[in-house]
Every structure is written in structure tokens, then in C-alpha cells.
Amino acid sequence: MAKDKVKESEIAVHWQEEGIIHPKKEFVDQANMADPNVLDRFKAENWPDCYEEYAELLDWDKRWSKTVDTSNPPFYNWWVGGKLNASYNCVDRHLKEHRNKAALIWVPEPEEEAHQVITYQELWVRVNEFAAVLKDECGLKAGDRVTLHMPMVPELPVTMLACARLGVVHSQVFGGFSGEACGDRIVDSESRILITSDTYYRAGKLLNHQEKADIAVKHAESQGNNVDKVLIWRRYPGKVSSNSKMTDGRDFYVDDLLKRKKGARVAPESMDADAPLFLMYTSGTTARPKGCQHSTGGYMSYVAGTTKYYQDVHPEDVYWCFADIGWITGHSYIVYGPLANAATAVVYEGSPAYPDAGRPWRIAEQLGVNIFHTAPTTIRMLRKLGPDEPAKYNFQFKHMTTVGEPIEPEVWRWYYEYIGKGEAVIVDTYWQTETGGFIGTTLPALQPMKPGSCGPGALGMQPVVLNDDGNSVEPGSAGNLCMKNPWPGRMQTIYGDPDRFVETYFGKFAKRDSKKWQDWPYVTGDGGTLSEDGYIRILGRVDDVINVAGHRLGTKELESAALTVEAVGEAAAVPAYDELKGRVPELYISLKPGFDPSGVDVQVKNTIEKMIGPIARPSHIWVTSDLPKTSSGKIMRRVIAAISNFMDPGDTTTLSNPEIVEPITKQVQAAKKAMDAVPEGERKKLELEVQNFGDD
Ligand code: PRX
Which residues of the chain are under the pLDDT cut of 50? Predict the structure, then answer.
């Protein structure tokens, strides 16, 4: 990314400052945290010991002797000397009081299939028996990495907790990702075992997922990483529903292996607080995804605390987080946070609007869901498809979360009025794969809601907005959103690449010779503003990452996939405005000499889908004779991003080929007339993203 081209402070905020809305008294009266003193307890002067309040929510085998060791920034160890097990904290310790209470309620996509209620006792049995499989049949032990590539089935949390029981580091790859994408993550995490599923339902179709395992293993092996065993959970145990063939000696059905483990019990491994619990891959500015490594003690304390205080989960609540466990939201706020709090978590297999836009509300009504958690994209979609649907069903939420993207005040209000029925609080939670848990949001009983702003820094967090020189900007001005302090939920490192960790998250502003954590602000990669009252607004990414429907895609990942198509000579990916998904990727390509353009667009779309997954499928492929370049030959993505979004491409005189801009503009904008109007509020956000888009 070119340096110093941002003048964020000159960019106006994107939405009008909104009025504040207070929670209803009924909510405050029952809230887990309604004591205003908590804000004092978590003030900067009480950092880092304030976080003991979170750590004390867990059961420790051995208590820590020091809160945090910051002697080697930016690598910090939380709860030094402490020992615990995550699986024990999510399962075993609840048996005494909640043995017969639902831990998970799994809702299959076909409405005629009954849902499955898994009590804490049943979860404990399943986790133990599967842990025995991992230990005895796969020889796995603490510290080994295992790749999971599973859809939204209850066996996924069972698998994660079985790994955690042994201290095995799980790396779950989003089920919708391709076999190739899974293979790359197997290689990066050096996994020798892959755990997958045979089939699952999505939008009415039973998908063959097992075929992706064959591709993943082959892909990993071509890079020198052999996979010894593939464990396959069956959608219908005992029945074959995928037409993929089993590979002898490598592939095993889990239901077969479990037959030998009836009644097996595996003692939870007592892990050091800083032992890694899992890896979660996310996109960055290079083609290689980053394995964000999360710790056992720090992470567990942070998600237990934020689930209790911010999600306001009590054991008697029915909590439905409508995210995929394959993303960090599902790890933190379906599995580890809720189960650490003895909650009942709903896991839904399928598409939000299948078979119609009333489905989520039927589920909510039937299960008595009272806490609901989803992304703005889903809210926009449900609003578009069935604005009057929520009113037809008899459910009442006390609390609703939004996550993953900025939510427009207009959509926020629909969420509040129609889904929350004017009663539920909305908690807009800002965070990232890297942060482990919420970092900017409102404590629902104590801090009022403000549509369009996620809220102040979460308890203990010290957010700051810096300009490109590293100085704080005036309240209300935009800049690089950073977090001054370390916190327990933050990732420990990028697996296998500590240098990249330092560069990506601290490189911009760190005083590299300093050993003081104060000199190492965490750079979120988001543009944002902090208003006088301390509320944060997120303006979007300021790096080469596109946030599609709350999921991050690196431009380089898209481009390198496109470049595998033989005809493609050059490729550049940019974000374009989309009414439902926020952003969608568009690709500009130029062809190698002598290649025929016909059909290349479809080929590129299909290749990207095959290599990464359907969420990465570009909305448009623009085949152009050349791409705008600097005199040193770098593609000016900023210029084409402006073209895609009907914005002024700015000064193009420094380009080596300025004459190309006009014909590309005509070509693209004539074809896209339909989306001519990017709404005014969106335009400001886009301007910031586009200005920052990298050239190379
Ligand atoms: O740009 C921010 C946006 O999503 C990015 C993180 O993406 P990911 O690691 O996939 O995690 C998504 C779920 C935690 C951020 O850098 N983002 C996340 N939450 C919000 C948001 N933007 C605005 N408002 C939010 N509440």
C-alpha cells in the first residue's frame, strides 16, 4: 500500500450523528451487568488487573501468578503460570447444576426433520468419546494441529471441544470454502488429520461436502504435506449420503470409530494459559491467509466475560447466534463464550431464508429464542424479502446483536422496530478474527445505543484514532482506528509467521526499539472516528481487504486465483458497493496477447469460486485492453475502484497510461447503469476505502 496518501481527517463522517436510545427498564432489571461501577473498575488506571473479573468466571486448575507479561511487545502472555482446560470449562463444570439442561439445540435445514437437543450431560459424553477417537485412533496429543472443514452441525462443537480436551489445536475452515482453500490451510497449519462431513443441507440441497476432502488432501500433498487420516462425520450416521468414494486406510466414518468408544472418558488436559487453543485463518493483504493463533487462558477469559456482560447470556436464556461456526463469531459467540456461561446455544444448519423469509422467526418462536445475533447483511436480506414476516410470529427478543459490517441507521431502525418489536436492545459489536472478542460496543444496560456507531471501546479497551503520522486526531475526525492497550482476547501471533504478525498489526506506528507496550498500538486496519462521547464509527477497511457480507477477502487472493486462468495476463480486484452485501468484489483483467476474450469472464468467476468458495465469486469481471498503471508499472487499484463505484478517479496524470481511464470508465459505467446511485451516506465510506486501495 502506498504510504501517506490518506487524508482521513478531511473525510466527513458518513452518517448523520444519531440520537441515543436507552434500553427498556425490563432489560436493565435482569441484566448481568447493570452496575455503573464496572466502568470505573475497567478504567485505564486499573489495566491490566481489571480483566481478572473475566478470568474469575472460569475454573482454573492453577491460578495465575501474574496478570500479563508485556516484556516482549507485541507478544504478550496473559494469566502467567495459570492452568486450565477449555473443554472442562465449557462442559464438565456445568454438570453439577445443569446436567440436564440443553447446551446445544441443533436445527436442521429441512423443516420436516426434528431438531436435536443436546444436554450438557450428552455433550460431555459425546466430547469424551470423540476425544478418545482422536487420542487412540489418531494418536493426537497436546500441541498437534488438526484441520476441521465442517458445516453447521452439532458435531462441529463436539469436535472442537474434543480437541480442546486434549490440548490439540483445532483449525476450522469455513465449510463453504473450497477443497483447495482447505488444502492450503492444512499445509499452513501442518495438519496430518482432516475432520470433515459427508453432506449437509444448504438452500434445499443436500450438498456433497466429502468431495472437497479429496481435493483438499490432494492439494496439501502436492505441497508436501501428507494427510494420514480423514475422519468423516455422517449427516445420517450409518447411511451413505455422499457419492464420493472412501479411500482405504485413509478415510474413516466417525460413527464407525465411535462404536468402539462407547463409555470412553478422557481426562481434560491441564493446559498452560498461553497454550494455543485454536487457529482461525483470515484474509490479509497477501495471497496467503493468516492463521490467527488464539490462546487458551486469555481467549477463554475474554469470551466468557464479554458473553456474560455484553451478550447478557444467562443459563436460562435461549441464545441464537446466526453466524457460521467456521468464522470467529461462531467460535467465540456460539461455542466457547456461551458454553462457558452454561447457556443454551442454537445452531442452525442452513440458509437464513430457506424455504422463505419467515424461517428465522419460526425457529425463534418454536425454541423460545430471546437473544438473537446476526450480521447486517442478513438483516438487509430478511428486510428485503419479508419486511412484514417478523410480525406474524410470536417471539420476543430481549437482546439483539449485530456484527461484521457497519449497519446503516435505516437498517438499524428496522431491526429495532420489526425484529426487536421496539423492546429488545441492539448491541452493535465491532471486532475482528484477530481480536478474539468484542472491542467496540455498548454494555447494554449501561451505555445507550446510537444507530450507526458501534459504541465506545469495550471494557478495558483504550481505542484511539491516529492520522498517518501517528498522532491522535480531533474527536469526530477520521483516521486509523487503533487500540492502545493489550487485552486478553487478542491473538498471540500468526501461526508460523511472527514477523508478519508484527508488521501487519503494529508495523505502521510501533516504536520498534521500545519494550513498552504503550509504544505498540494495535492497528485494526479499519478507518474510524471517535466522537466526543467516545463512541466509535467504523468507516471500512483501509487496507487491501474487501469485506463482503461481513467476510474478509484479500484482493491478492482473488487476483492470484484469477491469474491461474491461462488467458489472464493481469488482474486487479476492487470493492464495489452492493445494496445487500455492503461490498462485492469486482475484477479487472487484461489478457495475454493472442487470447480470445470470449468466455474468459465466466472462466475467471468459476475459477475463483472453485479455488476460494462461492462467497468470493466476483459480481463483475471487466476485461480491458490494459489496466491503469504508475510509471513503475504498478496497477492503480484506486483508480479502477473509483470507476466501479461511479466516483471521481482523482488525479490520473501521473499514470503511465492515462488515456486508458476514459474508455474503461465508459465500458464499466455503461454496463452498470443500474447501480448508478451509490447512496450519499455510503459514498463517504467508499471514498475512504477507495483512496486507500493499494497500488501494485
Ligand atoms: O472492517 C471491520 C468489520 O469486519 C472486519 C473484521 O472481519 P472478520 O475478522 O471477518 O470478523 C468479522 C466478525 C467479528 C473489521 O475489521 N467489522 C466487524 N464488526 C463490525 C465491522 N464493521 C463495522 N461494524 C461492526 N460492528
Answer: 1-13
Residue 437: CB within 6 Å of ligand 1? no
Q: Rounded to the nearest whole angstrom, what is the distance from the C-alpha of residue 98 to the centroid of ligand 1?
A: 34
What would the grid cell of residue 531 be?
Answer: 466522537
Peptide bond into 593 cis (omega under 30): no
- Residue identifier of the C-alpha nearest atom 14 of ligand 1: 432
pLDDT value at residue 10:
36
**From the CB of residue 368, how many other CB atoms can be counted at a distance below 10 Å?**
11
CA distances to 310, 427, 438, 682 from 452, rounded to whole Å, are 18, 11, 16, 12
Question: How far apart are alpha carbons 427 and 450 in whole angstroms?
Answer: 10
Distance (angstroms) between ligand 1 centre and the Cα of 292 equals 15
State the pLDDT at residue 16.
65
List, in sequence order, every beta strand (DSSP E) within 446-499.
463-466, 478-483, 493-494
User: Is the separation of the CB atoms in 301 and 49 below 8 Å?
Assistant: no
CA distance linking residue 555 with residue 287, whole number of Å: 8
Chain center to CA of 386: 26
Contact 237, 52 (CB under 8 A): no
The pLDDT value recorded for residue 682 is 75
Residue with cell 425457529: 363
pLDDT at 634: 85
pLDDT at position 4 is 38
Ligand 1 neighbourhood includes 328 CB (under 6 angstroms): yes
Record the cell numbers describing residue 202, joined without a space: 444448504
Grid look-up 503460570 returns 81
Which residue's alpha carbon is at the smallest distance from atom 25 of ligand 1? 430
Distance of CA 201 to the CA centre of its chain: 22
Radius of gyration of the chain (CA): 24
CA distance 93 to 84: 12
452 Ramachandran zone, left/alpha/beta (phi>0; psi -120 to 50) = left
The C-alpha atoms of residue 174 and residue 674 are separated, in whole angstroms, by: 33
Write the CB contacts of 482 (distance below 8 Å, at least 6 apart in sequence): 463, 464, 465, 466, 509, 521, 522, 523, 524
What's phi and psi for 278, nearest 5 deg? -160, 165
The Cα–Cα gap between 650 and 642 comes to 8
Q: How far is the CA of 675 from the centre of ligand 1 (A)?
A: 25
pLDDT of residue 677: 61
Q: How far from the centroid of its chain's Cα atoms is residue 363's Cα? A: 24
458 CA → ligand 1 middle, Å:
14
Q: For ligand 1, is residue 692 a contact (CB within 6 Å)? A: no
